[in-house]
């Protein structure tokens, strides 16, 4: 029987916490691992998002808010000490279960047990009375899956809206006025005696299925490796912002499954360079698909043929190959 592990992480440095999470996913290959953690003021950018477009750089600089890119897909979120983040690392399901609902279910149960009528909604959100209180995301590594989420417990919602840029194309309704109007704090829907520490304790028990567990102790050598990953990757401008190409073609489309944005250079009718951004729910890096398109003729049918060589839902969630192809180059009438 495989052990369950709880990682006690009191660090609030977002660079370190994301490095620790990645290390646990890629180096601890047995047993279920649960980590509960908090970040001091930070913007956490989705793996495939264009940080330059998403972040209000002037505001985050003036307020000392760090910008860090995570390894999972989805949208950009704001973290502060009023949030509680959770990470679950486990073996992938052998059946074709809905992994997002599978891992989100215990979180929703805890919130409801504590008095907040939470529900899973849309692609990856937890909602209470029409307000988003958590976003979740996933990625896979070999036979393992990482599922994590950020629970807005008592967060500074004004900083959420001021820190982010939101494209008007992402919304169909003019009734949506701001990021702040769409999100809420869990604390506002719970009895007064519930604290973030109570939520943390109940969530740990639920995610570990009330089974026995042990604290995961990291060796000194592992701590050195995590610090190196933090320094060489998560603290770097190259990882967090990246270097966009000087592109000749820039396309953007919004689908039910999220947004897709493509930057390309095409020479002599063939795709020479390609970068893909968006808030789609990816399990694998879309750069693998972008690299696969290098050298492909810039024609819808041939682009679609390349895309169909990939298990496209692992890269773009519910956005289909035909929709991705239509964003890259116009579909025939």
Automatic annotation (TrEMBL):
Question: Reaction catalysed by this chain?
Answer: L-lysyl-[lipoyl-carrier protein] + (R)-lipoate + ATP = N(6)-[(R)-lipoyl]-L-lysyl-[lipoyl-carrier protein] + AMP + diphosphate + H(+)
Gene3D superfamilies, A to Z: Bira Bifunctional Protein, Domain 2, CO dehydrogenase flavoprotein, C-terminal domain
Q: Does the keyword Nuclease apply?
A: no
Any one GO CC term of this protein is:
cytoplasm
Q: In which pathway does it act?
A: Protein modification; protein lipoylation via exogenous pathway; protein N(6)-(lipoyl)lysine from lipoate: step 2/2; Protein modification; protein lipoylation via exogenous pathway; protein N(6)-(lipoyl)lysine from lipoate: step 1/2
Q: Name one GO biological process term.
A: protein lipoylation
| Source organism, top-level taxon | Bacteria
Coiled coil spans: none
- Residue ranges of the BPL/LPL catalytic domain? 28-215
Q: What is its EC number?
A: 6.3.1.20
| Keywords, ordered alphabetically | ATP-binding, Ligase, Nucleotide-binding
* InterPro entries linked to this entry: aa-tRNA-synth_II/BPL/LPL (IPR045864), BPL_LPL_catalytic (IPR004143), Lipoate_protein_ligase_C (IPR019491), LipoylTrfase_LipoateP_Ligase (IPR004562)
Q: Under which main EC class is this enzyme filed?
A: ligase
For whether the record's keyword set contains ATP-binding, the answer is yes
The protein, known as = lipoate--protein ligase
Q: Which organism is it from?
A: Extibacter muris
């Amino acid at each position: 029987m495989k052990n369950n592990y709880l990682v006690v992480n009191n660090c609030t440095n977002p660079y370190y916490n994301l490095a620790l999470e990645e290390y646990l996913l890629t180096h601890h290959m047995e047993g279920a691992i649960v980590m509960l953690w908090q970040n001091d003021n930070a913007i956490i950018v989705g793996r495939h998002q264009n940080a330059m477009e998403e972040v209000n750089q002037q505001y985050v600089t003036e307020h000392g808010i760090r910008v860090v890119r995570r390894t999972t897909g989805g949208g950009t979120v704001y973290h502060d000490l009023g949030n509680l983040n959770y990470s679950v690392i486990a073996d992938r399901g052998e059946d074709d279960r809905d992994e997002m609902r599978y891992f989100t279910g215990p979180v929703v149960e805890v919130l409801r047990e504590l008095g907040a009528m939470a529900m899973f909604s849309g692609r990856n959100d937890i909602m209470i009375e029409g307000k988003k209180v958590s976003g979740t995301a996933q990625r896979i590594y070999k036979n393992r899956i990482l599922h994590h989420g950020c629970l807005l417990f008592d967060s500074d919602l004004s900083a959420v809206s001021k820190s982010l840029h939101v494209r008007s194309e992402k919304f169909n309704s003019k009734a949506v006025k701001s990021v702040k109007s769409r999100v809420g704090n869990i604390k506002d829907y719970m009895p007064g005696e519930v604290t973030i520490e109570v939520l943390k304790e109940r969530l740990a028990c639920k995610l570990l299925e009330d089974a026995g567990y042990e604290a995961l102790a990291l060796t000194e050598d592992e701590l050195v490796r995590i610090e190196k990953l933090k320094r060489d990757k998560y603290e770097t401008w190259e990882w967090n912002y990246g270097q966009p190409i000087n592109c000749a073609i820039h396309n953007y489309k919004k689908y039910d499954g999220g947004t897709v944005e493509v930057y390309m250079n095409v020479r002599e009718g063939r795709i020479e360079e390609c970068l893909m951004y968006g808030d789609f729910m990816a399990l694998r890096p879309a750069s693998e698909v972008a690299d696969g398109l290098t050298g492909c003729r810039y024609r819808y049918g041939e682009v679609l043929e390349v895309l169909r060589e990939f298990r496209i839902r692992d890269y773009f969630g519910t956005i289909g190959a035909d929709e991705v192809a239509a964003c890259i180059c116009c579909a025939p009438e």
